[in-house]
Amino acid sequence: MTVKPPQLNSVAEFFAQALAIETEASERYGLLADQMEVHNNREITAIFRKMANIEAKHRDEIRRRAGDALVEGRPASFTWLGPDGPEAIDLEAVHYLMTPYRALMLARYNEERAAKYFEAIAQATTDPEIAVFAAELARDEHEHVAWVDKWLEQYPAEDNAEEDPDPPVYSE
Fold first, then answer.
1. How high is the mean pLDDT in each 10-residue block of the chain (172 residues)?
2. Which of 27, 37, 62, 113 is the most buried (most CB within 10 A)?
3. What letter does residue 115 receive in the DSSP assignment?
4. Distance from C-alpha of 76 to C-alpha of 98, rounded to nearest angstrom
5. Residue 55 CA: distances (Å) to CA of 26, 39, 107, 160, 165
6. At 158, is the secondary structure helix, strand, or coil?
7. Closest listed residue to residue 65, CA positions, set 145, 158, 132
């Protein structure tokens, strides 16, 4: 996956963007946990809640690191291509019969995508301060990938595990 880095003009803009990414990821995982809870998929609910908490802590850490560089209310230049940021799970990828393995693979994909996004910023920027912060965030995201990989060891890979045995019937 090739990631086109955004054009960031200041450290404040970088931190505003990074904060938006982590906020969106935390909120999305929370939303997905709520959806899985409605479907009584407790195991996936717990995984998504854990990921929401991890992302919330990461968001708070970014806010702390930003310090005076983050100007509240200042718009950032958001450059991701889809409607969602590089660390948010696509809502259409979630199924009410989702298995723990599938949920963790979605989380892993998004953590990798976020790492590549920050790596691309670190490599492309001409601002050495942005490069340092972006490289740190990329390392943090790689650490999240390692955590997900460790959790994946608990669950076997499966084929067609989300096939609905009782699909909806539509009548006209």
1. 73 86 89 86 88 92 79 53 61 70 87 92 93 94 93 79 54 60
2. 62
3. H
4. 35
5. 5, 23, 11, 29, 34
6. coil
7. 132
pTM of the model: 0.78
- Residue 25: both structure tokens together: 């990821």
Contact call for residues 101 and 157 (beta carbons, < 8 A): yes
Angstrom CA distances, 171 to 69, 168, stand at 57, 10
Amino acid, res. 69: A
Question: Over the stretch 31-68, which tens digit does the pLDDT of each residue have?
Answer: 888 888 888 888 888 988 998 999 999 999 888 888 77
Name the token pair of 120: 């691309």
Contact 133, 14 (CB under 8 A): yes
Cβ neighbours for 38, distance < 8 A, ≥ 6 positions apart = none
Confirm if 33 and 7 have CB atoms less than 8 A apart.
no
**How is residue 151 written in tokens?**
């959790």
Q: For residue 44, how many C-alpha atoms fall within 13 Å in the half-sphere facing its CB?
A: 27
Task: Determine the residue type at 57.
Answer: K
